Amino acid sequence: MPLSIDIVSDVVCPWCFIGKRRLEAALELYRKGQPDAPAPQITYHPFELNPDLPREGIARADYIAKKFGARGYSAHDRLVHAGAQLGIAFAFDKIARQPNTLGAHALIERARERGVQPAVKEALMQAFFVDGLDLTDTETLVRIASAAGLDRKVAEAALADEALRRAVAEEEDKARAMGVNGVPFFIFNNRVAVEGAQPPEVLLDAMLEAEKESAAV
Question: Which of 10, 12, 55, 66 is 20 to 30 A from residue 169's alpha carbon, by CA?
Fold first, then answer.
C-alpha cells in the first residue's frame, strides 16, 4: 500500500507554498531511503485563509494594511528569503487583488477527480505568488487550470457549479471541526499529523512513523 499524504492548504497561503516545496524535498529523501516503495498518494484538501472575503476579492493593498498595519509589505521579507532558498520567486509586489479562493478550490477538487490535482494546485500557487495573477477572474482561473491539464470545459463548468462550491466549503468545515486551524497541515496514513511548513527531515520522520504505526496494526 502506498503511503497516503493528505494536505490541507490554501493557494494564497505563502507558507503552504513553502510547505509544498519542503514536502517535495522530503519525498526525495523518502525515495532515496526506500527506492522500491510505491509512490505516495497525495491529496489536497481545501482551506480558506479568508473565507469571509467577497467573491470578487478585495484590493491587496487594503488587505495588507488591515492584516499587517504599519509593517506593511515588510512583513513578507522572511517569506521572500525562505522562498528563494526553495526556488520560489515570491513577487508580492505584483499582487493587486486578494481573492476569495473558493473557486480555486473547486477547480482543485475537480482536478482531483480528473487525475491532475497536483499540477493544478502548483499552477494556481505559481500564478498568484510569482505572476501576480488575479484569482478572482474566471477566465484567468480557467486558463491556469487548462494549461495545467484540466479540460477547459470541465474547468468552466466547475467554476459555475454552486453545488461543488458548497461541497468544498463543507469539506473545509470538516477540517476545522477536526482541529485544523493553521495551514499547511499534513496527515500521513491517517495516523500522523504535522502542522506548519516544517523542514523536510521532520516531514520524512512523520512519513516513516506513519508507516510504522500502520504496519503495527
Answer: 66
* pLDDT at residue 75, as a whole number: 79
Question: Is there a contact between 64 and 26 (Cβ–Cβ < 8 Å)?
Answer: no
CA dihedral (123, 129, 132, 137) positive or negative: positive
One DSSP character per residue, 160-187 reads H-HHHHHHHHHHHHHHHHTT--SSSEEE
Radius of gyration of the chain from Cα atoms?
17
CA angle 68, 12, 15 (to 5 degrees): 75
The pLDDT score that the predictor gives to residue 43 is: 98
Question: For residue 6, which amino acid is it?
Answer: D
Spans of the chain below 50 pLDDT: none
- pLDDT reported for residue 68: 87
Question: What does residue 213 show for φ and ψ, rounded to 5 degrees?
Answer: -65, -35
Please, what's the b/e burial string for 56-67 (b: 16 or more CB within 10 A of its CB; e: otherwise)?
ebbebeebbeee
pLDDT of residue 182: 94
For 89, residues 6+ apart whose C-beta sits below 8 A from its C-beta are 83, 130
pLDDT by residue (tens digit) across 8-43?
A: 999 999 999 999 999 999 999 999 999 999 999 999
Residue 70 CA to residue 126 CA, distance in Å, equals: 27
d(C-alpha 68, C-alpha 193), whole Å: 29
CA distance 63 to 140: 21
Dihedral Cα 131, 78, 22, 176, nearest 10 deg: -90
